[in-house]
Amino acid sequence: MQIPEIKDKELHRVVTTTAIYTPDFKYLITKRSLDKKVQPGKWCFPGGGLTVDDYINTKPATSAGQWYGALSSSLVREIKEEVNLEVGKPELLTDLTFIRLDGIPVICFTYFAPYVKGEVVLDNDCTDFAWVSLEEAKNYDLIEGIWGELSQIDEILKSRK
Questions:
Q1: Alpha-carbon span 11 to 70, nearest angstrom
Q2: The pTM is what?
Q3: 69/139 Cα distance (integer angstroms)
Q4: DSSP track, 78-133
Q5: CA angle 107, 84, 76 (to 5 degrees)
Q6: What is the pLDDT of residue 135?
Q7: Is 30 exposed, middle or buried (0-12, 13-18, 19+ CB in 10 A)?
Q8: Are the CB atoms for 92 and 71 separated by under 8 Å?
């Protein structure tokens, strides 16, 4: 694979994805719309990018103008926008870095969080959704690496039972 030319080596697009789970080990996956820049039509966890609006209109935590929790705020906002659900406390699983075809470097933080409430209502970023077990997830055209992440999450959650 040829790596695209990076436009700015100092800047990254920061995104989160979240495996939302139920007590019976079902996980929400969504199908990306065909007009997405990255992995159109593939199945993944809901998520999206951090924006300045996720923190700029809130009071800074320090007098130096620093904010805590911007990534968490972004994660909760993206889940609400994309699938209309509320989740419990998210836990970080891993991070992944890649370079989009347009030369934008991306760092993606993958979380997992318990489903709290809401009915799935999709926005324009997704065309379909499914609540699946780890085994059922194998039947979907997942973004590469998602099944491995799901397997790790499933193992962590089942070890806590």
A1: 17
A2: 0.91
A3: 35
A4: HHHHHH--EE---EEEEEEEEE-TTS-EEEEEEEEEEEEE------TTEEEEEEE-
A5: 40
A6: 97
A7: buried
A8: no
